[in-house]
Amino acid sequence: MPKISVLTPSIRPEFLNITQECLEQQTFQDFEWLSEIGLRNRGFMLPSDLNKMLKRAKGERIVMLQDCIRIEDNALEEIHKLPNELYTF
What we know:
Elements: E1 4-10, H1 16-24, E2 31-37, H2 46-56, E3 61-64, H3 75-81
Parallel strand pairs: 1-2, 1-3
């Protein structure tokens, strides 16, 4: 089971390569990447698409990462280091 599930909903699949490159460079590699691609002409149902990804997610922690966004190479490592009590609701 991966430690982190990275979720990326998108209506711009042409920009997912930016997200993919960023994730490939992460110093922490115990993660899975889930993406749900919506179609602009049919509308993008963010809550529905997020629910689909959440049902498939196997990670202990969930990270939302928008397409077109670059994060630092150690971002997932830093998230993994955060104390669990920050995530208790």
